[in-house]
Specification:
Blueprint: E1 2-9, E2 12-18, E3 28-37, H1 40-47, E4 58-65, E5 78-81, E6 91-95, E7 99-101, H2 108-112, H3 115-128, E8 135-138, H4 144-155, E9 159-163, H5 167-175, E10 180-182, E11 192-197, H6 203-208, E12 211-219, E13 243-246, H7 256-268, E14 276-281, H8 285-293, E15 300-304
Parallel strand pairs: 8-9, 8-11, 9-10, 11-12, 12-13, 14-15
Antiparallel strand pairs: 1-2, 3-4, 3-6, 3-15, 4-5, 5-7
The structure holds NADP nicotinamide-adenine-dinucleotide phosphate.
């Protein structure tokens, strides 16, 4: 079967190769992939690929081999799934605990945009706790995670300020419920109960400075690749006694399949609206990864698996 594998060339990160058909474990189904999406973290891994890297964590398609242990969906079921690897291929194996069924009304393209970014957004919300009435600041908000988070946090009663690189990149965030969209974190007004930071470099200490006393700083990424520097004494200027929380989406009590089913339900009931900035044939995956790296994609990019 055809699969996209790393090249090691930063100008063309993946290319097609022939791979053996997947051999599922008893608790794994085989899915014929119809669409997948790409993530910033995956793009970073492809920049310097380790031996044996098989990319692909966000897929949607149809079950072609059901799990031998009887768990999970039957052959022919439309699904969205979150394999740990090897999803950018015609067929992929996924543990049934990381699969959710799709109603006919949710397209493969829409579903493929959900897994990693959507799981991150709902788990960030869980980490934040009760947010009704809270003021929240989120940096790097114009990407995949940011759009999901803003819509869900607004629906949960928070007042959200989003930081995006430009007005065009912030447009949908306003439509999805952001109370304020700024293009420089320094322009965010007032103090925040919760700050979510994923850009790094100077964005992180500037965002921290917007936190109120005893606020919560949730640190979930470093999109710029530049580490952040914090000063102990800086906290006395506002965020005194703040909690700094490192976040990794995979550290979750809920199985992926359960949270995926929640995301699908929210989309199906018109309460979550994935922002898909680009949708292309999978032959264009390298070009899309370059656009992602260069901050040219608003929301998610989805690739359709063609012949
Ligand atoms: N901790 C976890 O478990 C976890 C899970 C998922 C994602 N992440 C991380 O969370 C971040 C957001 O994920 P995502 O999937 O939403 O990524 P994404 O779609 O690539 O969005 C990242 C956003 O960051 C903004 N940004 C600001 N300064 C940047 C810079 N110097 N370089 C690159 N981007 C910059 C960009 O928006 P503008 O151009 O509009 O500023 C971009 O839209 C990433 O860093 C990702 O690696 C962490």
């Amino acid at each position: 079967m055809k699969a996209l594998l790393p090249t090691g060339d930063p100008e063309k990160l993946v290319h097609f190769q022939e791979r053996p058909e997947p051999a599922p474990q008893p608790d794994e189904a085989v899915i014929a992939v119809e669409a997948f999406s790409v993530n910033r973290g995956e793009m970073f891994l492809l920049m310097r690929p380790k031996e044996g890297l098989l990319p692909g964590k966000d897929i949607a398609g149809r079950v072609v081999v059901a799990a031998a242990d009887g768990s999970g969906p039957a052959v022919g079921t439309r699904v969205v799934a979150h394999p740990p690897k090897a999803g950018w291929a015609e067929r992929a194996t996924v543990r049934t605990s990381s699969i959710a069924e799709l109603p006919d009304e949710v397209s493969f393209e829409t579903a493929a945009a959900l897994p990693l970014a959507g799981l991150t957004a709902i788990r960030l919300l869980r980490t934040a706790g009760s947010i009704v009435g809270k003021r929240i600041l989120i940096t790097g908000a114009s990407g995949g995670v940011g759009h999901y988070f803003v819509e869900l946090a607004h629906a949960s009663g928070a007042e959200v300020t989003a930081v995006s690189g430009s007005a065009e990149r912030g447009e949908r965030l306003t439509a999805l419920g952001a109370a304020e969209v700024v293009h420089d974190v320094a322009d965010a007004t007032g103090r925040y109960d919760i700050v979510l930071e994923s850009v790094g470099a100077e964005s992180a200490p500037q965002a921290l400075a917007k936190l109120r006393k005893r606020g919560q700083f949730i640190w979930f990424g470093q999109a710029s690749r530049e580490p952040a520097t914090f000063s102990f004494f800086g906290f006395f200027a506002g965020p005194e006694s703040a909690t700094v929380r490192h976040f990794h989406y995979a550290d979750s009590d809920e199985p992926d399949g359960v949270d995926l089913a929640t995301l699908v339900r929210l989309v199906h009931t018109d309460r979550l609206h994935p922002e898909i900035g680009r949708a292309e044939d999978w032959s264009l995956t390298s070009a899309i990864l370059t656009d992602l790296r260069e901050r040219r994609i608003r929301g998610k990019a989805v690739l359709r698996v063609g012949q």
